[in-house]
Write a structure and sequence with these properties.
Low-confidence stretches of chain B: none
Number of strands of chain A: 0
Largest interface: A-B, 26 and 32 residues
Number of domains of chain A: 1
Number of domains of chain B: 2
Distance between the termini of chain B: 38 Å
Strand order of the largest sheet of chain B: 6-7-8-3-9-10
Distance between the termini of chain A: 27 Å
Number of helices of chain B: 10
Low-confidence stretches of chain A: none
Shape of chain A: globular
Largest sheet of chain A: none
Mean pLDDT of chain B: 87
CATH topology of the largest domain in chain B: Rossmann fold
Strand content of chain A: under 5%
CATH architecture of the largest domain in chain B: 3-Layer(aba) Sandwich
Mean pLDDT of chain A: 87
Oligomer: heterodimer
Shape of chain B: elongated
Radius of gyration of chain A: 20 Å
CATH superfamily of the largest domain in chain B: P-loop containing nucleotide triphosphate hydrolases
Number of helices of chain A: 11
Helix content of chain A: over 70%
Amino acid sequence: MNRIWAIAANTFRETVRDRILYGLVIFALIVLPGSRLVISLSVGQEIRILKDFGYGAIALFGLLIAVISGTALLFKELDKRTIYVLVAKPVRRWELLVGKYFGLLATLLLAFLIMAATLAGTLLLLGGKADGLFWLTIAGLYLQLTVVTAVAILFSTLASPALGAVFTFCVYIAGTAADQLRLFADRMPGPVLRLAAKGVSYAIPNLQNFNFRTESVYGLPADPAKVWLMLLYAVLYAAFTLILASVILERKDLK
Amino acid sequence: MTHILQIDGLTKRFHDWERFSPRAKTVLDGISFEVAPGEIFGFLGPNGAGKTTTIKILMGIIRPTSGTARIMGHDIVEQSQQVKQRIGFLPENPYFYDYLSVGEFLTFCAALFGITGRAAAATTDRLLELVGMRHAARLPLRKCSKGMLQRTGIAQSLVNDPDFLVWDEPVSGLDPIGRKEIKDLMLELKRQGKTVFFSSHILPDAETLCDRVGIIVGGRMHRVGTLPELLKDSVSWVEVVAEGLPAGFAPAGAKTELIAGQSIIRLDDAAGLDGALKAIMQAGGAIVSVNPQRENLESYFARQVRSAGNL
């Protein structure tokens, strides 16, 4: 556990000292209050539009951080050969991946807290409020990215950062339309094709499980069962993905 | 446990899938040798001979295709955790996390062995002192010179007080003073009972340090032994010093030089020594000394590599 903690702390330090991350968070901090200019045109709908826009911006910047950092973390270790020192110490390869994963989640959490606080402040300025649904939506967006980060790390064991980033974005886009993909799979011609399409649609993470934006924007009640499902799904999907990544890394020559 | 390192038939083949080549390239071809506890072992070979590949296998960075290696009796693949608790590794041309300072990096390495808090701070201080980097504890690694990175690398390899050190080219890139300090450190570690296994291109350093050396060429172990063992058959010429010889005296196949009243007779072929000594006695000379001149490690190494068809 000490080793995972040490690697996580080191990864956190690496990502928070990364200029790209600073750039993204600063950009988000400009965009979120700046959205007032856009919504000033929408009389009577300001709070709804600001929330919708704000959640979208937080999801996008979070996604960029997760994908850029997640797909590059292992590549950088291999490219700069810093991994040699780690692997020669009593660090199991799965500990390395899990440590890096938690370190990146800590960075994402910090970025989310900063962005969410900025959005909450902007809402309060316009007479809105950051209620429980607001924070539940933010938590949903964060948990969504815990799954996406695990996927990014899986691709980092298989492909270059650029390819890994493309694959992760594809999985993200497919994951946000997972329910539609499953319906589409049901309509495929022939049992073999249908089974294959269904398999793919279930392998892709269903990121709609994490979406509370509609409830928050329109003030609808959130289903407690959906909250628990979201938590369980995030933990299981991320764990399975990291196990798969560990199996791949375990067999890999770290040239 | 009689050997601290025991390598048996270690083989590594690489597939070049990026070029879609189905043929595997053999980088290590069944090498076998042992390292005894407490010795300094020099692992020598030209570029591409397989030194770093061997070391990477020992450290668990890559996996062997076949063969076994045991460190302190533990199989390096099956029991890697036990092995790694007791070894220290310095990679070739070390590069570390440039966003950390020297002190932060050593503290991080200590944490990987479960050394935290005050114990980690004390370990970091001790190691910085040992490698002469105390002044640089807060210096970011990205600002370190090559020599400083090498010293930091050596410090991190000692963080767990290991019994067995594996250093890949520890003196490359260092100035003469830095090289001397690292060599002195190796001897000090040997004095403390540790075993040092290092690869090097700098043969005079290996010659002065090593109890035994192994020469690897083209992925095959060419020679292993102590320096006297390796060099015993490598007398390249014999010098005989004699007195009382008449001017112009020279045995067959020899050259003579007169220096300070003594005849310095150089025989290019050691087989002619008996005949030359007889000739000196018959000429009324007195033999002062007979000095067989052996090859140094550098020329022996070059000859071995040439004979293996690699030069």
